[in-house]
Amino acid sequence: MIVFIGCAIVIGSIYIGFSMAGGHAEALLHISEVITIGGASMGALVLQSPKKVIIDLVKGIIQTIKGSPFNKKTYSELLMFLYSVSRLVRREGVLALEGVVANPNAGLFAKFPRVGKNHHLQHFLGDALTVIADGKADPAILARDLDEEIRVMETEHHAASGALAKVADGLPGFGIVAAVLGIVVTMQAIGGPVEEIGHKVGAALVGTFLGILASYGFVAPMAARMDTLGAIEASFFRSISVALVAICEGQSPRDVAWGARRMVGSELRPSATEFAQLLKDAEAA
Prior knowledge:
It is a single chain. 81% of the residues lie in helices and 0% in strands. By secondary structure, the chain is mainly alpha-helical. It has one domain. α8 runs parallel beside α10. The longest helix is centred in the C-terminal third of the chain and has 56 residues. The two termini are 33 Å apart.
């Protein structure tokens, strides 16, 4: 929703300003310019990016439009899940984690669907819990391994948003290319009516306009938003990492959940009162 609101503000402000200056919207509609700029940008993206980066980019754009799944409700369920896992270990020992991992569609994962239905979270938690269930995990080594996994995740995310940012950097240049092509077409009609020449020059200038607008008005902000959502995702996984290491160290269930709570920004972090209620709800689940 926020993405659509932002796009509407950009388009609306430009349209209103252009109309107030006496312009007509149809003067900006030149499909040939859009095809030139859009096609060249897509080609450059394919040329510079491996297959995985393109796939990650498409997924990232879709997720950016839909909004981050790592919101306050998801984080609240995550704290409840971590608290429940820690209580299970405290009562039955680490071998009880084998049942949690073996049945990801049932048990604790099923009780907290925002965690269980997120395959990325599920796999991250499942792999770490499997290591802890072995009973010989070293907390320091576990912390190091989880940190490395998160770094790989961040690297892959930055590769996708970086590719989009490079496309944004190139769009003004492709706009100039479209404008130059438009001038070439104008030169071919230089002996024609003045109105026709004016129309073709206007179309050429629209190419420059569209390239700059697409870059600074849409693509670059989208890349920046992808980076922001990636940082939110990384903070979620770091909070999980802290909690898993605490479970491995044998800390109390409350301390496990409290440590995870401190790792996420104030916008998503439940208050002390909300945190206490979450623990009660987890015990009752």
